[in-house]
């Protein structure tokens, strides 16, 4: 088939599906899948599965066993964790490309000027919590499959589209469980595209690392008029913050040359987020809790970061006899980075240029995402992040997804699937 004809066929097929894309988007955007705790997961997964079946995909549901929910979704209140997987073609046929996105969303929060689940359409944008981050990516991957069907383009291999839960709380019961079950591994998958909200004109090749931790500090309570009789746990926290500024921040001042987006996140960020101490104005606190969100550029590791935190805690403890501390690590993921020069990356770069009319850019995500499971546990380097949602809208009030950008992403996904898998004769 002549290249221009192929590009035009996919373009026309996606454009003809504008109304159905919009209806599908509003259907799943309008389902409040807040996580935690994980509301309405079954309803959303089945709505996505129904759309997949409508376009002729074979559909399966993968549910976390009840007895493992407390382990994999400890904040999930026992609610079900369900992934839906659709196959365009024989599920056993290779090569394959697996597009996947998460359907859980953060709580809506405050400051909205419209109903967070009302799906108001203004200026070609659909306003809803989770529209950008990242149900829009699910819409695009399903519409990409639909467009190939409508254009009469039969792949040599198999296009797989899936939607998973729980990315917003770490993903253990979503892609983490799917990797454990043999999905998204080097043995089962040739190419993987996480349809997370890293912008329609960027190919994301990795993400920064994450270390979330709280430090419980113990001292000795005393009367405020006799502070020498106590050991002030809040003062320990104060000295600890100073030690972090003096000992750790100089070690993380150098930015990465990698294209982390937004550019301000090209430096390691070590952000205090919790400080809890004291019950009464005239009582020296005997306990305190301080928490940090540490995002690590790809050149650093979680193990190294833990060594630095322990060192400064020991330093402060030595300066305050009678004090102690316990570090609780609440989340830890090493940075993820895949090669820039692979068939998957180059295909998306080329096809992005074809439809956008300009060069695509590389990016690295400032926060962790499900790519970590596919690359680190599934051992699959052919895994990028590409989706239509705008990163800068994630978790904000008045979040929206652009209908045109969802269509654009679907075109790029569909053409890339053809290039990577080939067309059947």
Automatic annotation (TrEMBL):
<dbReference type="InterPro" id="IPR036264">
    <property type="entry name" value="Bact_exopeptidase_dim_dom"/>
</dbReference>
<comment type="similarity">
    <text>Belongs to the peptidase M20A family.</text>
</comment>
<dbReference type="Pfam" id="PF01546">
    <property type="entry name" value="Peptidase_M20"/>
</dbReference>
<dbReference type="InterPro" id="IPR011650">
    <property type="entry name" value="Peptidase_M20_dimer"/>
</dbReference>
<dbReference type="InterPro" id="IPR050072">
    <property type="entry name" value="Peptidase_M20A"/>
</dbReference>
<keyword id="KW-0170">Cobalt</keyword>
<keyword id="KW-0862">Zinc</keyword>
<dbReference type="InterPro" id="IPR002933">
    <property type="entry name" value="Peptidase_M20"/>
</dbReference>
<dbReference type="Pfam" id="PF07687">
    <property type="entry name" value="M20_dimer"/>
</dbReference>
<feature type="domain" description="Peptidase M20 dimerisation">
    <location>
        <begin position="205"/>
        <end position="318"/>
    </location>
</feature>
<keyword id="KW-0479">Metal-binding</keyword>
<dbReference type="InterPro" id="IPR010182">
    <property type="entry name" value="ArgE/DapE"/>
</dbReference>
<dbReference type="GO" id="GO:0046872">
    <property type="term" value="F:metal ion binding"/>
</dbReference>
<protein>
    <submittedName>
        <fullName>Succinyl-diaminopimelate desuccinylase</fullName>
    </submittedName>
</protein>
<dbReference type="GO" id="GO:0016787">
    <property type="term" value="F:hydrolase activity"/>
</dbReference>
<keyword id="KW-0378">Hydrolase</keyword>
